[in-house]
Design goal:
alpha/beta; 2-enoyl-CoA Hydratase, Chain A, domain 1; six-stranded mixed β-sheet; three-stranded mixed β-sheet
């Protein structure tokens, strides 16, 4: 069975799970199309946070090399556009995304993780862009998102050498935010998700949007947008409730 997707809902938290009976999850054209429609269903649900994870040996080992073997230049561009569109949708979404990574997270898998808002990892994993080993380059956003996360120097080292980062290196360079054993990976991701879900939903939406656009807008324009958004939080009632709860030493109700 090729890699497939299932979604598990638990109130405001969703899990998007990649799974294959071969134990190795790969990104095919069919899976990328399914990811687009599946993510739309997540957005249409009550979920505010979604954990993306893989079952089996790896989070996502990369793109489907056997499918790519038959590509010509035009078909390759269509494949890249499909992946970029799917990942852009996750990055721009109002749903907060957490990639819970174990095993191999390579090529398109790494690019999907980069499109997520937060990445948590586990010992023994590897993250990388090995496309040059096949005479290719990243096509799902790796050349654009990776330097924004780890800096140009580290990104060039990863992309030009094709060599992945191990868990400690990924943590050091900020590609993941924390690590622990693979056994408690989902527990840690869910704990983070629950913390986020306890915060004001409109504040979360605005904070994600502003932080996501910070690297692509002029700082003066970014500060103006932040100032406007800061003021708007007082118009939703969330700030009044949050401040009141703090002063009254109680948990806020958002």
């Amino acid at each position: 069975m090729p890699t497939s997707i299932r979604v598990e809902h638990s109130g405001l938290l969703a899990h998007l799970v990649f799974t294959s009976d071969k134990g190795v999850n790969v990104l095919s054209s069919a899976l990328l199309s399914a990811l687009k429609s599946t993510w739309k269903s997540v957005e249409e649900s009550e979920a505010r946070v979604c954990i993306l994870r893989g079952e089996g040996k790896a989070f996502l080992a990369g793109a489907d090399i056997k499918e790519m073997r038959a590509f010509d230049a035009e078909r390759a561009r269509e494949f890249a556009a499909l992946g970029q569109d799917a990942f852009d949708g996750i990055e721009r979404s109002g749903v907060i995304s957490i990639a819970a990574i174990h095993g191999a997270c390579l090529g398109g898998g790494c690019e999907l993780a980069l499109a997520c808002d937060i990445r948590v990892g586990s010992t023994g994993m590897s993250l990388g862009q090995p496309e040059v080993n096949l005479g290719l380059i990243p096509g799902f956003g790796g050349t654009q998102r990776l330097p924004r996360v780890v800096g140009t120097g580290v990104a060039l080292r990863m992309i030009l050498s094709g060599q992945p980062l191990n868990t400690d290196e990924a943590l050091r360079y900020g590609l993941i935010t924390d690590t622990g054993s693979a056994d408690d990976l989902i527990t840690r991701a869910e704990a983070l998700a629950r913390t986020i879900l306890s915060r004001g939903p409109e504040a979360l939406r605005l904070a994600k949007k502003l932080t996501r656009t910070a690297m692509s807008v002029d700082q003066v324009a970014g500060l103006k947008a932040e100032r406007y958004a800061f003021g708007s939080t007082f118009g939703t009632g969330e700030a009044k409730e949050g401040i009141g709860a703090f002063i009254e030493k109680r948990a806020p109700t958002f």
